[in-house]
Design goal:
With 150 residues, the protein is α/β, with parallel strands linked by helices. The protein has three helices and eight strands. Bound molecules: copper (II) ion (CU). The site of copper (II) ion has 5 residues, from strand 8.
């Protein structure tokens, strides 16, 4: 392979950007628009990716699962959008008995309470009123969680 051919091959491998820069003959003014276009393209891609992930977040946020374990809710702090359903899920393997009780919520929200259960049980509530919800297990004082609906 002669030197010229090697260089052309290298140019093909380097792709359009480098070939474009070479064709511009080092003229900075001619290279600038390409760079600006590339930057704009990247920004547009970033925006598109952002709104996609935001939509995915919104879909995921319609339902949030909280694990009910022995003496804890996990997560114990939640921030969710209004209209999200919170699903408390008890373990498959029986442990101690727990429940979910709304000890304090935003004004106008009725107290709710799940059944007492040790396993294989779920309880769900759709929370629409904005504000802070304090959830407790009525059997275990240390078992609490806080949900902020925004
Ligand atoms: Cu409990």
């Amino acid at each position: 392979m002669d030197a010229n051919r090697r260089e052309r091959t290298a140019d093909r491998r380097a792709g359009d950007t480098r070939r474009g820069a070479r064709l511009a003959g080092g003229a900075v003014l001619q290279r600038l628009p390409a760079t600006a276009l590339l930057a704009a393209g990247c920004a547009a891609l970033a925006v598109a990716a952002n709104s996609r992930s935001e939509r995915a977040d919104a879909a995921r946020q319609r339902q949030v699962t909280v694990k009910v374990g022995d003496y804890f809710y996990k997560p114990s702090q939640l921030r969710i959008r209004s209209g999200t359903t919170v699903v408390w899920r008890w373990p498959r393997i029986p442990g101690d008995v727990h429940d979910v009780y709304l000890a304090r919520g935003p004004r106008g929200v009725r107290k709710f309470r799940s059944a007492l259960a040790a396993s294989d049980y779920t309880y769900k509530r759709r929370l629409t009123r904005r504000g802070t919800y304090r959830i407790i297990c009525t059997l275990h004082a240390e078992m609490t969680m806080r949900i902020v609906v925004r």
